[in-house]
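HUMAN: Spend a minute on the protein record below and explain its fold to me.
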Amino acid sequence: MQSSRPSSCQVPLTLAILILVAAALFCFFGALAVGIGAYYFIEAETGNVAVATPTPVATPTPETQSTPVSPRATPTFSTTPFPVPSPSVTPFRSTTPSTPPARSTRSAELDENGFHTAQIHIGTETLDVELAESTQQQAKGLRFRQTLAENAGMLFVFPAPQRVSFWMKDASIPLSIAFIQSDGKIVQIRPMQPYDETPVPSLSDTIAYALMVNQAWFERHGIAAGTVIEDLPH
């Protein structure tokens, strides 16, 4: 019987299979490595890409045109310092000396009753008065009168301050009398009744004037003792 020997083709076939398997593995791992490398390369490139951020452009500021100032528009400042009040001057008080009120001027002519006349001011009221200056005029007074205007009266002017007394003999008009000092201050006001011959004396002995008006005229006009008449005639 004839004995068998191995074929000379078997070894190369096995080797070829191994080479193919090795080549396949090599290709697989090579492709894998290439893929991984490409992946990391792309990632690295993407992460390092610089994005250009636009730089804000400064907006040019328009130049302000200087307007020439007219010489007339330039304010002029006074170099004179504000006046400083003197220490002796009281603020809010006029330093102009006050002018004393003028004295009443008697009329040049006598009226129909034989008296000079004048105007005097008491508070806000103005009185037209007859001036009883002489002894004869003072003795006559308002006797035999029937009426007396509302803002009229008789002013008795005495030559020197003294105590005086009056009565109403032959006087038919109800009257009020004010006794006045030489400085014009009224110190007493008394009512007087028609035809009453009872003396009405002044309490003061410094009376320089006596003013007779219609009864209660002083009360109606808010005039009382202490009021000063500043323009009495001498």
Remarks:
- Helices lie at 10-47, 135-140, 217-220.
- The mean pLDDT is 78.
